[in-house]
Automatic annotation (TrEMBL), chain A:
One GO term (biological process): translation
Tree of life domain: Eukaryota
Protein's recorded name: Large ribosomal subunit protein uL3m
Species of the source: Danaus chrysippus (African queen)
GO molecular function: structural constituent of ribosome
Gene Ontology CC: one annotated term: mitochondrial large ribosomal subunit
Species lineage: Eukaryota, Metazoa, Ecdysozoa, Arthropoda, Hexapoda
Location of the region described as Disordered in the Swiss-Prot/TrEMBL record: 239-266
Keyword annotations: Ribonucleoprotein, Ribosomal protein
Family statement drawn from the similarity comment of this UniProt entry: Belongs to the universal ribosomal protein uL3 family.
TrEMBL record, chain B:
Species annotation: Danaus chrysippus
Superkingdom of origin: Eukaryota
The keyword NAD is assigned to this record: no
Family: Belongs to the bacterial ribosomal protein bL19 family.
CC per GO annotation: mitochondrial large ribosomal subunit
Matching PANTHER family: LARGE RIBOSOMAL SUBUNIT PROTEIN BL19M, RIBOSOMAL PROTEIN L19
GO MF term (any one): structural constituent of ribosome
Spans through the membrane: none
Keyword terms: Mitochondrion, Ribonucleoprotein, Ribosomal protein, Transit peptide
Example GO biological process: translation
Primary site of residence: mitochondrion
One Pfam family it belongs to: Ribosomal_L19
Protein name (record): Large ribosomal subunit protein bL19m
Amino acid sequence: MASSNLKLLCTLLSRIRVENVTIKRNLYQPPKYRPPHWYMPKERVLTDDMVTQDNRDFIDEVRQDKLNLQTAMESPLSKIEPQETVQWNPTTRRVGLIARKIGNYPLWTKSGKKVQTTLLQVVDNHVIKYIPPEEYTPAKDYKPKKVGKYRLGCMLVGSETIDPTTVTKDYCGIFSSVGMLPKRHLCRFHVSPNAQLPTGTPLFATHFRVGDYLDIRAKTIDRGFQGVMKRWGFKGMPASHGVTKTHRRPGNIGAGGEKARVWPGTKMPGHMGNRWRILRGVKILRINTKHNVLWTLGVGIPGETGAMCYLFDTVLPLKKLQTPPPFPTHPPAEDLPLEYYDESIHLFEQPSITFEET
Amino acid sequence: MSLVMRKSPIEYFNAAKWIIRRECRYLSNLPEVAENSEVVEDKPPKGRKPRFLNPTLQYRHVYPEFLPDPNPKFRNSLREKLERADMLKRRSQVDIPEFYVGTILAVTIADPHAQGKTNKFVGICIERKGCGLRAEFTLRNVIDHQGIEVRYELYDPTIQNIQVLRLEKRLDDKLFYLRDALPEYCTFPIDMDPEILPEGSPVPVNTVQVKLKPRPWLERWERQELKGVSNIEEHLKEKDRVRRELRKTPWEKFDLMKDYRKTIPIEDQTEIWGEVYNQLQQMRVSRKKMSKQRTFTAPKTQLG
């Protein structure tokens, strides 16, 4: 009896099969960081290459020749007839610029009011590459979207030509594949397909006009680990009246009972600054065409003096471009006036401001 | 031989110290103290001449705002260049004369709210600060027994005219103590006539020492080593004297690094003055011509 039971059990057990295994996992998968395909590490460990002086001179010569070739290169836009250029409409998106923040100083309006301005210098900007929307796969997408889903292409712009021997071979490859010398800063801009530009097109400050509004993206000043008073503007506690050891501390950070925990998002001490921030709707007051400098209204542009920032046409609905700007960009021209001024700005070479008696 | 070896490093050290000190004093763009210049006049340094005899460097006292802020956080050569060009453009429109702290000035400014749309103020310059287009100065006067201070921006285009009424320096580089002084030391008539110095004469130093009102004061003047105040000891208690001794920082005048951080290096200064020297010189010459013309025409108008 016992053996028959055992037999029955064995047959039953032998029938059991694992059809499919379902493992319960967390459904959320954070997007994997895939760097864009044009991203390459730039910094290189500089070693003494044991190159003789003759060879070093030769390398310098070659480099100088290449640099001369690039500076002498004519803008591809100058060959294109003005009739062939496409028309601008309010939905198109133009390329932006890479600029360096070089300081602040005041200007005066014609009504005698002082305004603070920030100076942005557009340094040696060139179009490196255009990737059409069909081939463009942005970096952080979890599932790559279907081909042809993107409306905008990607334009790579570089600024400040550097010595190719100081950067990695991979980084140089991005530029040498399109016949350019490597740049210190590389940035991508989303542009409409009809605003695309050929490789090697120089971009100038005249890409924007006086009176237009910009969006400026830059990294804020890195202030390191800061307390709650500097980071969030808390009031702190009194200096005296029996207060001990809690002059700059946050105080209470939560209630008891049901909520007896620190709620997410509570303002606390921590690292401050060194984050990407966008300041929107900054007006251009003055443009110098010789040094490619823009004077923008206000001092709120992120970053310290000498920091790089990216300039775009603004997306604010009331400050958007109304009239067609230079499209796709301003072609290089010799006979430009040295400076453009906004109509509200008083020129320093004009006589002093006087007010009429009414 | 050994004696020579022993001596020589000390000598070198002394020589180096002397050179460094000379250089620093030469470079500082702070207003020159009157006593120092007198000492130099009495005893010209024997043997070695000062290393830098660049005449353009003298401009750092006359036009201090052309030197940029020495803080490396804010320096950028292109911005400074553009700023200087703008300053010269403004100077071509309005005559900004040479003046110092202690000079009595009359400033006419366009004011939309004033009667006649201009406003004139006369007063003594108690402070001069800022560099580039941000340069500003403060005038002080007592009008109807009420002390008035007005801060003007040097390159403000609403300024119609800046006239020097009495060109002179004082013993200190900031005259904030006039706020606590008796009112007669900063009372100037509104219709004051300009005093013309003979050409080529150095800027005179007014060695007047003001009398302070009794306490309370706006600042602790006793701790600031002021030379232009005569009766500061009358108002002090023993406690104040003790604290003044405790707060003294006699080592700061030997702090070379601090001096270096406050000043613009000689190479930068020669570059800056080389850039603006010609235009400033032209403006000076044209101003002199204008003033000569004025002196000729003035009697004629009176006769007519």
